[in-house]
Amino acid sequence: MRRRDFLKLVPLLGASFARAEKVDYPIVTPGRVFAFPRDHGAHLEYRVEWWYVTGWLDTGLGFQITFFRARPEEASENPSSFNPRQVLFAHAALSDPARGRLQHDQRAARAGLSLAHVELERTGVWIDDWRLELEGNWYRARIPARDFDLDLSFSATPVVLQGERGFSRKGHRPEEASYYYSRPHMNVVGRLNGRDMTGTAWLDHEWSSAYLAPEATGWDWAGINLADGRALMAFRMRDKAGGTHYAPPGVSLRRLRTWKSPRTGVEYPVSMQLNDLRLEPLMDDQELDSRASTGTIYWEGAVRAFEGASEVGRGYLELTGYWKPMKL
Questions:
Q1: Distance between CA 208 and CA 321 in Å, rounded?
Q2: Cα angle 257-202-172, degrees, rounded to a multiple of 5
């Protein structure tokens, strides 16, 4: 969501918008009729949007690739290419227990000027030499990061509309919602650092104008590919006391064990009980410091799902708002 962190845009925007009017963002409402392939592309009028791929490689490594789009609040008719009508961010991370902490990298740029671009009619987003594109029945991600090189393709499995036919409530107010679909159980083929890899992945595509309630401080989210072919997505929005501000019906998330970062001092519930599943991290240290781009610190990592002593699935867990309250 995440799966979901677009703050401190001002340093990226550069220009001063004297007397600029605020953008009138469209509100997410129930009853949208999704149209594909168009809805795989960008929705520029909305405030925020992301394409989020998480997965496990068969070598026992976890990976995450996320492209974010944000529309600035200030309206401007300035035709200049320097006018930041859209700002793009990207994160990528590799979870390797042999290293014990994340390898990660990030990019940020305003759309245009041959620096970054996002397409409307299909998934096609790039920043410099980082790319995520839907070509026929396959997505391809090309991420030449600082400490690793990912070149992976993901099979375009059937779309799952989350929430109420794609209208996903995130709070108690009507506008606190997103349009949200997933593609679980995607097959992965490609290369990591030039070495052939296979695995499984999960894709989320989500867009919104008002995601986080003012009473909420962050969220816990999980997307799990189950071994029997089913898939489970669950989340809760936390209040400032650490309890549940909002969760979809039938979703229960509670902490089992915490881990404290030796770098930031932030404590995260890295082991969680999700309904009848116990989520255990591939490794405890999967903290992602993205202050250089989106201005926040959070935990996002590969997890195993257990029923009793039996492993029944694998996926990703995202924990935000434990450092500071999230602001969108």
A1: 19
A2: 65
Question: What is the CA angle 156-211-170, rounded to 5?
Answer: 80
Burial of 212 (0-12, 13-18, 19+ CB in 10 A): buried
Q: What are the phi and psi torsion angles at 41 (to 5°)?
A: -85, -170
Answer whether residue 323 shows pLDDT above 90: yes
At position 42, the amino acid (one-letter code) is: A
Nearest in space to 32 (alpha carbons), one of 140, 177, 247: 177
Q: What does the pLDDT read at residue 76?
A: 55
Q: What is the CATH number of the domain that holds 75?
A: 2.40.370.10
Bond before 37 cis per omega within 30 degrees: yes
CB 321 within 8 A of CB 217: yes
- Residues sharing a CB contact under 8 Å with residue 247, sequence separation 6 or more, in sequence order: 234, 235, 236, 237, 253
Q: Looking at the domain assignment, is residue 2 inside a domain?
A: no
Q: How many domains does the chain have?
A: 1
Asked, for residue 1, whether it belongs to a domain, the answer is: no
20 part of a folded domain = no
CA distance 274 to 230: 15
Mean pLDDT of 63-89: 79
- Cβ pair 113, 71 in contact under 8 A: no
Q: Is 193 helix (H, G, I), strand (E, B) or coil?
A: coil
Q: How many whole angstroms separate alpha carbon 126 and alpha carbon 52?
A: 14
Give a yes or no: residue 173 inside a domain: yes
Is residue 5 predicted with pLDDT exceeding 50?
no
Question: Residue 5 CA to chain centroid, in angstroms?
Answer: 8
The values of phi and psi at residue 10, to 5°, are -55, -45
Domain housing 228: 34-319
The SS3 of residue 317 is: strand
Pair of tokens at residue 233: 């997505």
pTM here?
Answer: 0.90
Residue from 192, 166, 188 nearest 177 by CA: 166
Mean pLDDT confidence for 237-243: 92
For the segment 123-134, the average pLDDT, to the nearest whole number, is 97
